[in-house]
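Q: Could you predict the 3D structure of dolichyl-phosphate beta-glucosyltransferase?
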Amino acid sequence: MSEARTGVGPRVGVDLSVVVPAYNEERRLGPTLDAIVAHLTATEAAETWEVLVVDDGSTDGTREVVAAVTERDSRVQLIRGGPRNRGKGHALRLGVCASYGRRVLLTDADLAAPIDELELLDKALSEGHAAAIGSREAPGARIERRQHRLRENLGRAGNLLIRGLVVPGIRDTQCGFKLFDGERAREAFAASRLDGFGIDVEILRHFRRADWSVAEVPIRWSHQPGSKIRAGDYAHVLGELASLKGRSVRAAARSVRPTDVLAVLVFLLMAAALYAGRWIDPNGRYLPDSLQDQNQWEWFFAVTADNVAHLRNPLFSDFQGFPDGVNLMANTVMLGLSVPFTPVTLALGPAVTLGLVMTLGLAATAAAWYRLLVKRLVRHRGAAFTGAALAAFAPPMVSHANAHPNFIVLFMIPLIVDRALRLCAGTRTVRDGVVLGLMAAYQVFLGEEPLLLAAMGMLLFAAAYGAVRPDVARASWRPLLKGLGVAALTTLPLVAFFLSWQFFGPQSYKSIGHGDNAGNSPLALLSFAERSLLAGDRERADALSLNPTEQNAFYGWPLVLLALGIVVRLWERPLVKALGFTAVAAAVLSLGPEIRLPRTDLVLPGPWALLADRPLFESVIEGRVAMICAPVLGMLLALAFERLAEVPGLGTRYVGFLAITLALLPIVPAPLKSQDRPEVPSFIADGTWRSYVDTAAGETLVPVPLPDPGNAEALHWQTTARFGFRMPGGYFNGPYGEDRTGIYGAVPRHTSALLRDVRYTGRTPVIGEAWQAQARKDFAYWHAGALVLRPQYYDKQLRATVDKLVGRPGKWVGGVWVWDLHEGE
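A: Sure. Here are the predicted structure tokens for dolichyl-phosphate beta-glucosyltransferase:
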């Protein structure tokens, strides 16, 4: 790059630099410089501005004109761009990179936009924007003298193309009157490559990609004769845009470092190791800590695939819970994955599909957090990897990895967070709002409760960050609210029908209770989960949680202490303050409506009481709110990791990384427990059941006892039989009573309740004619063709009970006891 800067040397404390590109501007440049100098002399302090004229290979007296002005005012300087004309982009790059101003103004040599319009741009910059660009197309612009109609139309057509391909939302990219934050302008122009008129687009794209806010300001503008733009320049600009687009694609490919690929591969290996026991034999292994949820989720994936294959409504099924059926939308069947995975489910079975979804989904979630941390928080890849690993593989996530894919397949959440942050910049509010709406709509079909928890976490963070950075809050709240409004208008039409089906459709319910102890104990936040490799304590974890799939805290006291130390050490950073508040607030909310202090009889009211009875929140297991802490702690850890990596002292780094290691080692997850699952009886597997159940007549097969949340193995029978038969009972959420309160499983009937009591107590009741008559009513209600009992605990008592209810003994067929209800008719 050839350049020479004449006049005075580097200026200290320059507030405004004015850059004027010039090529053969002998006739127009003198009046322009006089107007600029006069205006700046009247409005700016004497030593706070400079004017840089970049001569781009002029062959006339341009340099002499500048020299004459420089003799009168040394703040006007000439930068020589080289012996030949290379283009406006080259000249602007030289001028901006040579500037020293806190602000940098670009203006053309013809001064088509009067210099006093600087006041309007300056006002926009003072409101927090990184750039304020003059616009001839924004509402309020005044065109005092127009260009030739052909040239004007070509310019507008070019702007439409530019908006569509490169910088959506900006009406006029080519106006030559622009004001930038100086440091950001120098960074952008130093990174630029275009030498022609396309430089304006390249710089604005740089600002957009860096999420630096750009304001488009309507100005006065008047076409000046003597323009240097020729007809061929329009084609040249299009060529530059094509080059810019191609380079951006190549740059995006190059931006993926080998370290990033390695991080994703490691996340995939971590997820596969967690499920190693299942992958030994995906169709024949079961995760016992999932309780009955693995059977339920395999059924959800299988019934969705069956509905899609047979072109049935994917929002409802009566294959279990017959005759009332199941509202699948109200049971979180993850249509966003169960529908796309239909070919896999039909070809390989629901067990393989569930294994793939949970393994790949967990790895994708970690990769998404990694991307967000690299993009928004830290540049150090090791710091981002550590934080993302904690966010995705924290103890509560591993607990849910046993049974709840909707709580571990969260790759959309980091993308939603990133898009919400983009809204705060206010650069592409409508476009970002639409994208956020589409993302939120898709997340609804992956899991609504995780979306609600994510929204809670973002709201807590926004409130805290706004309190410590009110200037940012003032600049962000308008575009954020506008973007959220656009997102809502985008989301609602896409999900309205599905949500109406969920809340008002057949078998919908109002709310579902989880008992009085669904909140975390304060001790759960400091203790270790069962599946923590080195410090796991099953007995203590069971005592402090609802079950193995709901160990929603258990971060361990070393990690909690480390997080506290990070917050104290980095307290001067507003981001750390906001993250610390978010973690503490989420932890306190997770304690529930009543906080029971350990080792005392003292019970304090918890803030969750304010939300417990509100719509949407009433069905949330409040202990799950602590899951918000996982990504927050991951972010704090990433910040500390990066700060340590920059510390010059070897001893300090050693101590810091040792502390991180000691905090994380106790919660490193062990592979999930797995065991051989019970074989499906041959009565079901080989199709013998078809001789006993007339499905054409609407008959069902009734397992004994009926499947429920405590024993849902019959759902596995049904998927094995490829939904050849329907059955009553089941494991799902459905309504109960006139107020349609949500319960787990089908509405109990007298016979199903009787059989359930025998299963759990082993006591055989006295069966008389009244019970037999009730059983006949229930069998008719269920459209029962046959009752089936497989060997199990208390099977003798169950068999004796059914013998008496039916009035005759069952027959041993294909590994089960069968009562054919057609006999004796």
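Q: Anything worth pointing out?
A: The longest strand covers residues 16-22.
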